[in-house]
Amino acid sequence: MASTPYYNRMLEKVLRRSASEFPAVVLTGPRQSGKTTLLRHLFGQSHSYVSVEPPDVRAAAIADPRGFLDLYQPPIILDEIQHAPELLPYIKEWIDEHRNKAGQFFLTGSQNLLLLNRVTETLAGRVAMLRLLPMSRREADQNPSAKLPWETHASKEVERALHGAQLWKSFLRGGYPELVAHPKRDANLWHSSYVQTYLERDIRSLRQVGDLLAFQSFLRLAASRSGQLFNLSSAARDLGVAVNTVKAWVSVLEASFQVIVLRPYHANIGKRLVKTPKLYFTDTGTLCHLAGLSDPTHAAHGPLGGVIFETAVLAEIIRTLTHRGISPEIYFWRTTAGSEVDLVVAVNGQLIPIEIKSSSTPRPAMANGIRTFQDDVRDKSGPGFVVHMGKVRLPLAPNVTAIPFCDL
C-alpha cells in the first residue's frame, strides 16, 4: 500500500499555539481524519508515541496507570486515549507536579462522548480541546488559509477549480485524507471497509447495539433522510424499533463524528419556528456510500443530488471554522409560513444566511428566503450568499451574492 502524502492542515497553527500554552492537548475527530498523522508530523521528533488501542497496551494502562506513565514518560502522544480513561487522573497528577511544562501530553480520541466527559471532569483548566475533521476543500487544494466569503469581497480564481462531473466525483469520494491523497483508490471499497470497522469498534464500545443489522438499516434510512427534518418517531416506526433506540443511535453517530445534527435558529421575531432538527452526514463520501451511489451522474441528478451538495457546503464551513480552533455555530431557519434559509452561520455577532442551490444558473428568486430572514433579524444579519454549482459570482439582491461552490 502506498504511503499517504502529507497535506498541510489548517489546525497546525492552532495546535502549536495550544501546545505552547497548555500542558495537555486533546485532539478528537472521526477515525481516519488524520489526527495521528498530524501530531506525528508536527511533534514526532520531540514526543514519543504510543497507541492505547491494542488490547495488551490497554490492559497494561488500566492495570497499572502510574507504572504505565513511568514507562511512557512525557512528552508523549497517547493515541485513542478513550480506551484507557483510567490514565487521566494520573496525567492530572503529573501535570500538577510539573506546573510550568507546556505541551507535554497530546491525547487523541475518536469517540467524543466518552472522552469529553472524562477529560472535562479530570483535566479541567489543564487541557486545550481541539477537533480534526476530514479535509476541507481548501486543505485538499493546499490553500488552507483561504478566507470564507463573508470575510473578503475579493473574487477568487475559479478557472482551475473542479466543476461538473469532476466536482461530483470529489463529493462521492469525500474528504478523508487517504482518499484525497490517492485519487485512484477504490472509494466505494474504502468507505465499505470504513463503515464496517466503525460498526465493529466504535458502536459496540459506545453503546451495546443488540442488532447490528437493524443499526445498518438505520444508517441507510438516515442517509435517505439526510438534510430533511429528522422525526425520531417516524424513523422508529419505519424501522420497527423504539423511539429511544433511534435517539440513542443518533447520539452515537453524533458522538463519533459521523453525523451533524443541525438545529433550528431561534429568535424572538414573533413567528413560530420549526423545532425538529435536521440530520446531515459529516462526509459526503459516507453519505453517498450509504445511499448506494457510486456514479457522479446518478449522484448529481438523483433524488439526493441537492442534499449531497448541501452536505458539501455545510461540511466545508464546519471544517474551515473547526480547523481554526472555533466551535461552529450553524443553524437552519424555517418558519411555519414557509420561509426558509438552508444555513445560518453565527460569527462575530452577525448571522450569515446561506442558501444552497444545486443549479448552475443563479436567479434573483433564490435570494427570497435570505431577504425575508434579513428583514426579520434586522441589525443582526450579515451579508447573504447563494452557493451554486456554476462558475459565476454576481449580486442577486441588496446584500445577497451568488457565489460558486469553489468560491466558498
What does this entry show, briefly?
The protein has helices at 11-21, 35-43, 55-63, 65-71, 88-97, 112-122, 137-140, 164-173, 177-181, 187-206, 212-224, 232-239, 243-255, 284-290, 296-301, 305-322, 368-377; strands spanning 24-28, 48-51, 76-79, 105-109, 127-131, 259-264, 278-281, 330-334, 340-347, 350-356, 384-388, 394-397, 400-404. By secondary structure, the protein is α/β, with parallel strands linked by helices.
Question: Characteristics of this structure?
Answer:
408 residues, alpha/beta, 2 domains, 42% helix
Task: Please give a structural write-up.
This protein has 408 residues and is of the alpha/beta class. The protein folds into 2 domains: 11-131, 3-Layer(aba) Sandwich (Rossmann fold), CATH 3.40.50.300; 143-407, no CATH class. It has 17 helices and 13 strands. The chain has helices at 11-21, 35-43, 55-63, 65-71, 88-97, 112-122, 137-140, 164-173, 177-181, 187-206, 212-224, 232-239, 243-255, 284-290, 296-301, 305-322, 368-377; strands at residues 24-28, 48-51, 76-79, 105-109, 127-131, 259-264, 278-281, 330-334, 340-347, 350-356, 384-388, 394-397, 400-404. α3 (55-63) packs across α4 (65-71), α8 crosses α14 and α12 crosses α13 (243-255). The chain is globular and about 65 Å long. The two termini are 34 Å apart.
